[in-house]
Amino acid sequence: MLDDQADILINKVTPYVTDAIWFDKANLMIARLKMNGHGDKEMMERTRQLMDSLSDGYILDLYSRYKVNPRI
Questions:
Q1: Domain membership of residue 50 as a residue range
Q2: Cα dist from 10 to 13, 32, 54, 56, whole Å
Q3: Does the model's pTM come out above 0.70?
Q4: At how many degrees (to 10) do helices 6-13 and 56-66 cross?
Q5: Closest CA to 1 of 39, 45, 58, 46
Q6: CA 64/CA 24 separation, integer angstroms
Q7: DSSP secondary structure string for all residues of 5-16
């Protein structure tokens, strides 16, 4: 997930999903940004803020809200 407002994204894409919606945290986000030339101070701060917002608790909360949805 590259957004801390997953509910909005899930609601927007659900009508178009034919199989499943998967959500999880991004892997190696800071390293990938730096590798692609986006390692400036502002981008790194925004990335750290996003990573902080996507805590394990946030993911578990999403799961508890959407576990009854057969597409998620």
A1: 6-66
A2: 5, 25, 15, 18
A3: no
A4: 40
A5: 58
A6: 14
A7: -HHHHHHHHGGG
The tally of domains found in the chain comes to 1
Distance separating the N- and C-terminal Cα atoms of the chain: 14
Instruction: State the residue for tokens 């508890």.
Output: 64
Count CA atoms closer than 13 A to 10's CA, side-chain side.
19
Report the distance separating Cα 68 and Cα 24, nearest Å: 17
pLDDT tens for the 72 residues of the chain, in order: 667 788 898 899 999 999 998 877 778 888 888 888 887 888 888 888 888 888 888 888 888 999 998 888
Q: 1 in a domain, yes or no?
A: no
